[in-house]
Amino acid sequence: MQPNTAYAICTFNEIPSQRAKGFNLMVVDEEGKHRPWPIVVVRWGKQVFGYVNRCPHNNVKLDWERHQFLDQNGTRLLCGKHGSTFELSTGTCVDGPCKGQGLTPIALAVLDGDICVTGVTLVEDEEPVSGEQA
């Protein structure tokens, strides 16, 4: 894989502004093994921010319900288990048990109307072998 490969995970418009969406991807680690890679993508106007979906307090996923990542004001990411809140643009915890720690950022790019992850190798769905019906 090229180190600058970009993987489209959704269209830009699939995530409304001031909303967040979770994705459960599979990444190929340094040893060539496949491992789950849950991420959260936040859209704020024309900007997108991405983080590994794991609270630094005790490694639980942030969303308490599917795609429920934001606080009641919709201005911070929220850990549904312990109530820690994180700045959308930096992932820094500003309140809660992990105050001062941060979410692990992921590299995103918007290319041709798609939100893409970069800087990793993802496990892609296998292409059908030539001659097989898809």
Overview of the structural elements:
This protein has 134 residues and is an all-beta fold. 0% of the residues lie in helices and 39% in strands. It contains no helices and 9 strands. It has strands spanning 6-11, 19-28, 34-44, 47-52, 76-78, 85-87, 93-95, 107-111, 114-118. A hairpin with a 2-residue loop joins strand 3 (34-44) and strand 4 (47-52). The radius of gyration is 16 Å and the shape is globular. The protein starts with 5 loop residues before the first strand and ends in a 16-residue tail after the last strand. 22% of the residues are buried.
Widest sheet, order of strands: 1-9-8
Number of strands: 9
How many H/I helical runs? Answer: 0
Give the uncertain stretches in residue-range form: 127-134
Write the element-wise H/E pattern from the N-terminal end onward: EEEEEEEEE
Q: State the fourth-level CATH superfamily.
A: Rieske [2Fe-2S] iron-sulphur domain
CATH architecture: 3-layer Sandwich
Number of individual domains: 1
Helix content percent band:
under 10%
Strand content: 35-45%
In CATH, what is the class?
Mainly Beta
Average pLDDT confidence is 89
- CATH topology (fold) name: Rieske Iron-sulfur Protein
The separation of the N and C termini measures 24 Å
Report the radius of gyration as a whole number of Å: 16 Å
Biggest sheet details: 3 strands, antiparallel
User: Which shape, going by the Cα principal axes?
Assistant: globular
Helix/strand class? mainly beta
